[in-house]
Structure formats: structure tokens, C-alpha cells
Amino acid sequence: MDVSHILDNLNSAQREAVTAPLSPMLVLAGAGSGKTRVLVHRIAWLMTMESMSPHSVLAVTFTNKAAREMRGRIEALLGSASRGMWFGTFHSLAHRLLRAHWRDADLPENFQIIDSDDQLRLIKRIMKELQIDESKWPPRQAQGFINSAKDDGRRAGQVHDAKGGKGGHDLYLKAMTAIYQAYEAYCNRSGLLDFGELLLRSHELWLRNPELLRHYQSRFKVILVDEFQDTNTIQYAWLRVLAGQEVPLTVVGDDDQSIYGWRGARIENIQQFQQDFANSRLVRLEQNYRSTRTILDASNALIAGNSGRLGKQLWTEGEDGEPIDVYAAFNEQDEANYLAERMQGWVESGGLRQDIAVLYRSNAQSRVIEESLLRHNVPYRIYGGLRFYDRAEIKNALAYLRLVHFAHDDAALERVVNVPARGVGAKTLENIREHARQNAISLWQAIEQLVESKGVSARARKSLAEFMGIIYRLTELKSEISLSELVKQMLDESGLLDFHGAEKNDKAQARVENLEELINATKDYEPEENLTPLAAFIAQAALDAGENQAGEHEDCVQLMTLHSAKGLEFPLVFLVGLEEGLFPHSLSVEEPGRMEEERRLCYVGMTRAMKKLVLTYAESRRLYGQDQFNSVSRFIREVPVAFLQEVRIGSCLSSASDFQQSSPLAQNDTGGFSLGQRVRHQKFGEGVVISCEGQGPHSRIQVNFSEGSKWLVLSYAKLEVI
Ligand SMILES: Nc1ncnc2c1ncn2[C@@H]1O[C@H](COP(=O)(O)OP(=O)(O)OP(=O)(O)O)[C@@H](O)[C@H]1O
Ligand SMILES: [Mg+2]
């Protein structure tokens, strides 16, 4: 078979990684150097050269969307389907495993995944039962506590060992542990699994069941992981156990792009991998294929401000490209209008809207931008933000489906028993809960019993019977009609479609459209093996929440948070809201570790741009209902001025007071060194000149070395130009 096309368009380091023998390998490389491409080509290579069957491949991606895209690329390379391959996020893979082995994992067959809203609601309920004061211990804090314990692989019984008790901390720990314990017990009783539990449970499944583990270890011949720098403790443990001594791991990552530390991700896993697999192959990719030289060098200069990096050199054969634009807006409205106008200009000169991305630090920033785009008639969509499956109407519809699948799903029942309103009041509901608690039964069973025994008022009885009738009828239908017909029927019978359509606000139309989109989504839905379409769809929707796919085909501008931009690329990128306090976020200013993570986030943002990067900030901003007057972000100032270009004369670089101290930079050439130039220092190694001060022998120069940026007196520094 001719396999040369699999190696076409790969450089020699990429080829080495693609064709490496089956043993542990770490591909450590900067943004846009082809890490994801290497994974795709390696899978195609192994399937052709090593005759590996799709069944033997397990690949982990950061989003389910990325998994679908990569699968598509593999199929294009192979010219055949890739069914049977295990491809997805850690969560979706763990879920698949637990579905297949629910008995061994000690789960009911109908176990349900709960999302973070369901989880919070449950925690609130548990706190009430335990009589823990919500005003003292906010439920969100308890939620964070439970989730981070799970991410670290700790069960309620193990929390104490890890944290130890320290003075005043004790009370906190005691309350949190009690909540965690009760929560764990409740979830176990009701067959509910939160996201962290999926990993924890499947990890335990393997540890307790060596035979099953061996089965998978002999099934999978290779495990590949993208975005490895953002794995957390339990994910890495999961990989290690599965890989054992048998299955070679190919992991690719970039320490400079680790941006989920706040959610438990550990960059240290990169070094841990090298220790755990001492014989692993290390491949570095150093050529960047994504960005212009200007964008690349500016990003490199920025990230050089971080310490303790694993150190990478990235270069490009590409052209210099245009300077990076900096726009100083008066306020957030001005910023948003500027974006819309630039976008219109781009489209007028022949560019596509889908090539444009707007990246922001915080979700709340999107509203003003959205309004401006609407006013300017620029179609847009929010990537990963509005979350199709997180919208109220969709969650309501899914709750009905969940009940049809499994009537004892308490979270779903709580959500829709009175939506649309059918006269089940708060008091009745409290009655039902109490009855369920006392008899340790599900809410559904409690309703059945109360209706039968006339334990509730006649009016409530009628409403509840009506509600149960809907679920019964749909349950009968579910094996007779297709999934999309079932969804349609459900929307009619439950009254949801009419209810949302009649809402007296400007959302009604969109809600109906969303519900219709849900029918669409089920139309050509293909379930995974061994699941009914309904069960598979419900699980998929829970896992997909946060990855909005609606309107993907249209020519739309994309809006997203910096966090969800990971791994993506766009010809034109706007990085907005570059203000101290917003980005870097005010919470990170105190802690050096958090500040470095913010800088990596900025690096991720800048390196999404292929051709043109635009940075904006606002001199005043109304956000979260408050007026803020923040100074320009340090991140703009850390980019050598030589790469920047102010967009409006007199508005930014030349007049803003923040730039005055660095205005000598405008001279562009001091002491024989120019900004952005690469230099070598005897002790600190290679670095990039990022600013200069003064004249003659006393002039000082600031250089970003891999261990951080340093001010050096020119006459002593003995810098060598490279
Ligand atoms: N050898 C090559 N020749 C041409 N284009 C390439 C080559 N390698 C990668 N590319 C292109 O460069 C871009 C970046 O590649 P890719 O997304 O795989 O990089 P990455 O290292 O995964 O980036 P990130 O760190 O942002 O995830 C893509 O458009 C890819 O198609
Ligand atoms: Mg990638």
C-alpha cells in the first residue's frame, strides 16, 4: 500500500514522531508546531504500517468536538471509516467504560451523569438536611471542594489524611467533609455520577478488577493524548494504570499552554511522565506553521517572562506579516464597535467571517460585543459559551427525556415536575421530598405512593397524575418510534414547546428554535455500541454541554473565552479587554503562580492568530455593573513595542501614560540592539530584547531569558547578538 501521503507535509521531527516504534513517547513543542497533526498522522500511520485495527486505538482529546474533527482527518487520510476507535475526552471515555461494566463498577444499569447545575442543587439539598448554614459555607465552595478532591483522586474518607487538620481550618474541613460524605452516599444510592466521579470510578474499577484491566491492556495497542499539559492527577493516574507496562503512550503537550491549573491540571505531569517512563522518547517540534513571524516572536517574548519553563525555541519560515495592532478604546462600547467595524472591513476586502475570532478573559465580556455585532449585522456564534445543552429550554427537554429513560432520576424530576406550571406547589414538592427521604425511595416512587394513598391534596393529586401520565405514555412509545419522533412527541405532550414559545420576553423565539434544533440533533444521531439511542443521546448531551455546535456551518464570527480557544487557529484574532484586573485577572495579581498561568493564557490567545492579531483595551469599562478604570495590561507592555502598532494616533502607545516610561522604545534601536532581537548571555543563555532605557554606557536593557526577564547594564552584560 502506498503510504507516502501520510508522511507528505511533515517535517523531519514530525516524521520521527509519526513513525516512531511503539514505545512511550513525549512530544514537547510550542504552539502551532503540529502536535495535533502528529497525533492524527501517527494513528493513520500505525493503522497502515503496523496494520493496527481501529479497535486497538485509544485517543484522548480535550474536547469532544476536537475528537470528531481529528477522527474526520484520520478517515480522510486512510480513505476509510474509523469505527471502533476509542476517541474522546477523558470523561466520555470513562463514561463509555462504565456503561460497559456498570455491574463491576458497582453501579445501577441506569446510572445518570449529573452536570454542575444538578450537582449544586443536590449539594444545597444535602446541606439543608445536614443543617449546615449556607451563609457560612456557600454551596459553591462545597462544590469546589468536592470536585477538587475528586480531581486529586480522593474520596470523602480520604480527605482528612491529605489535608491534615490545622487550627481554624478544622471547622471548614469538618463541614466540607461531612457534605462530601453525605453527597457521596446520596449519589451512590441514586446512581448519580458527576464528571469527576466518572474518572475516579473507572480508575477504581481497574484497580479492583485486574482481569478487566488486562482485557483492555491487550485490546489497546497504543494510547495517544493531546493537550497533555492540562491533565490532572486522576486523569494521569487513569492513563498510567491503563497503560501499565504494556500499552505505549504517545503524549503531546506544551508546558507554556497549561491553563487549567485552577481546575486541578498539573503541568508537572510532563516531568512525571519522563520519570515514570524513563526510557521514553522525547521529540521536540520547533517549526511553527501557524503564525507570521511577528506574531510568533511577540508571543515568544511574552512567554519568556515566565520562570521554570521547559524551554523551547520556535521559529518559522513564514513571512514577517503585519505588526500587531493595539487599539485603546474609550470604553467597552467603543471597543465593541471597533471590533464590528474591523470585521466589516475584513469581509469587504474578501475575508471570511468564520476566519475571525474574538477572545476574552471572562464570559461576561461577550454581552456588549454581541450587542454591537447584532447592531452591525455581523453574524456570530459563541463557541463553548452559551452552551446549547446548558440553555434552560434544552435542559428542560432533556430532563423529560431522562425521566422517560429512568423515572427515578431525582434531579430531572425536580427540574420539570412543575415545568410548565401544572399546579405542583412548593409545599407539595416538600411533602414529596420528605416522603422520599423517610422511606429512602426516589421522588418518582414517592409521588406514586402519595397519589395512591391520597397523601396530597386533591388538586396536587390531579396535577401529579397528569405529569406521571406524560412520562408513562412516552415510556411506552420509546421503543416503537425513532428518537427524533420521541423528542417531538415529548415537546408536544409535555407542553414545553408552547410554554417556551409563549414566554413574554425576547427569548421566546430563540427558545423555540433551540428546541427545534434539538429535534434536529436527534435526527441523524448514531449511538455508540451497546446503548439504546435514548440512553446514548442523554449521556452525549450531558458530556457535550459546553461545546456548542449549533450553526457551525454558517459563515459566522466566533466569540469565545481564551480557555476554550485552546488548540484552535484563526487568520484574524482579536484579543480584547487587555486591562490590569481583567486580564491578568485581579485574583491572580497576588499569587505569582496564578500570574504565570495568566501569562500562559495570553500566550495561548496570541498564538491562535495566523495572519493578523489585534489587541484592544478600554480606558474605562462597565462590567458586572461597576465602572472600572484599569490601566493597560502588563501583557501588552511585555510585548516588544517593535512588534506593535497603535491604531489610533494619539490614543495609545504615544500618549497613554502607561507607555511613557517605555517611550524610548520608539527609537527602536539602542546601544546597537533592537527590540525583539535575539541575544545570548554567558550565564542566562538565549533571550529576546524587550526594552531599553537610557543612552551610552549607562543604558540598560531588558531581556527575556528562559528563566525570566532581567534588566542588564549594557556595558557589563557582554551580550552577543545571535
Ligand atoms: N509540516 C507541516 N506543513 C504544513 N503545515 C503544517 C505542518 N505541520 C503543521 N502544520 C499546520 O500548522 C497548523 C498548526 O498545527 P497543529 O494545530 O497541529 O499545532 P499544535 O502544535 O497542535 O498547536 P497548539 O499547540 O495550538 O495545539 C495547522 O494548520 C497545521 O495544519
Ligand atoms: Mg494542538
TrEMBL record:
InterPro entries: DExx_box_DNA_helicase_dom_sf, DNA_helicase_UvrD-like_C, DNA_helicase_UvrD/REP, P-loop_NTPase, UvrD-like_ATP-bd. ATP binds at residues 29-36. Belongs to the helicase family. UvrD subfamily. GO terms for cellular component: cytosol; DNA helicase complex. Its EC number is 5.6.2.4. The keyword Hydrolase applies. CDD domains: DEXQc_UvrD, SF1_C_UvrD. It comes from the Bacteria. The keyword DNA-binding applies. This is DNA 3'-5' helicase. Keywords: ATP-binding, DNA-binding, Helicase, Hydrolase, Isomerase, Nucleotide-binding. It catalyses: ATP + H2O = ADP + phosphate + H(+); Couples ATP hydrolysis with the unwinding of duplex DNA by translocating in the 3'-5' direction. Pfam families: PcrA_UvrD_tudor, UvrD-helicase, UvrD_C. Residues 8-292 form the UvrD-like helicase ATP-binding domain. Residues 293-567 form the UvrD-like helicase C-terminal domain. Gene3D superfamilies: 1.10.10.160, P-loop containing nucleotide triphosphate hydrolases, PCRA, domain 4. SUPFAM superfamilies: P-loop containing nucleoside triphosphate hydrolases (SSF52540). It is an enzyme of class 5 (isomerase). GO terms for biological process: recombinational repair; response to radiation. One of its GO terms (molecular function) is 3'-5' DNA helicase activity.
